[in-house]
């Protein structure tokens, strides 16, 4: 049985709406297409050549593929750490507010 390689998963930290770039002719690639993403969307990496852009696919059957800015995303594990840090800060803030 052949081993199945799992694709790296990323989470979008920012919305990426390439429609403005496309309309103004600012999309940097001629043949590749962008992928619009919303905050919190989980993406699978299809190809990463180490540049500022990563080729991803949204999750699900018949999901679209395209390029997103790499700096708009983090790995799932990094995203989970960011959420934990945020929750801890919120809890600390709530505790501090009770003291007033």
Give the structural class: alpha+beta
Report the uncertain regions. none
- In terms of DSSP E residues, the strand content is 15-25%
Q: How many runs of DSSP E, i.e. beta strands?
A: 5
What does the average pLDDT come to?
87
For the terminal residues, how far apart are their CA atoms? 63 Å
CATH superfamily of the domain at 9-75: SH3 Domains
Strand order of the largest sheet: 4-3-2-1-5
CATH architecture of the domain at 9-75: Roll
Output the number of helix runs.
2
- CATH-assigned fold name of the domain at 9-75: SH3 type barrels
Protein name: Abnormal spindle-like microcephaly-associated protein
InterPro entries: SH3-like_dom_sf (IPR036028)
Organism: Durusdinium trenchii
Walk me through what this model shows:
The protein has 100 residues and is α+β, with helices and mostly antiparallel strands. It has a domain at 9-75: SH3 type barrels. The protein is built from two helices and five strands; from the N terminus they run βαββββα. A five-stranded antiparallel sheet has the order 4-3-2-1-5. A hairpin with a 5-residue loop joins strand 2 and strand 3 (53-58). The chain starts with 8 loop residues before the first strand and ends with a helix.
């Amino acid at each position: 049985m052949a081993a199945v390689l799992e694709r790296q998963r990323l989470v979008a930290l920012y919305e990426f709406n390439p429609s403005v770039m496309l309309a103004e002719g600012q999309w940097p690639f001629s043949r590749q297409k962008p992928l619009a993403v919303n905050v919190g969307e989980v993406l699978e990496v299809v190809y990463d050549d180490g540049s500022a852009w990563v080729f991803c696919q949204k999750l699900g059957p018949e999901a679209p593929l395209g390029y997103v800015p790499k700096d708009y995303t983090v790995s799932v594990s990094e995203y989970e750490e960011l959420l934990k840090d945020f929750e801890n800060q919120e809890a600390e803030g709530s505790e501090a507010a009770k003291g007033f």
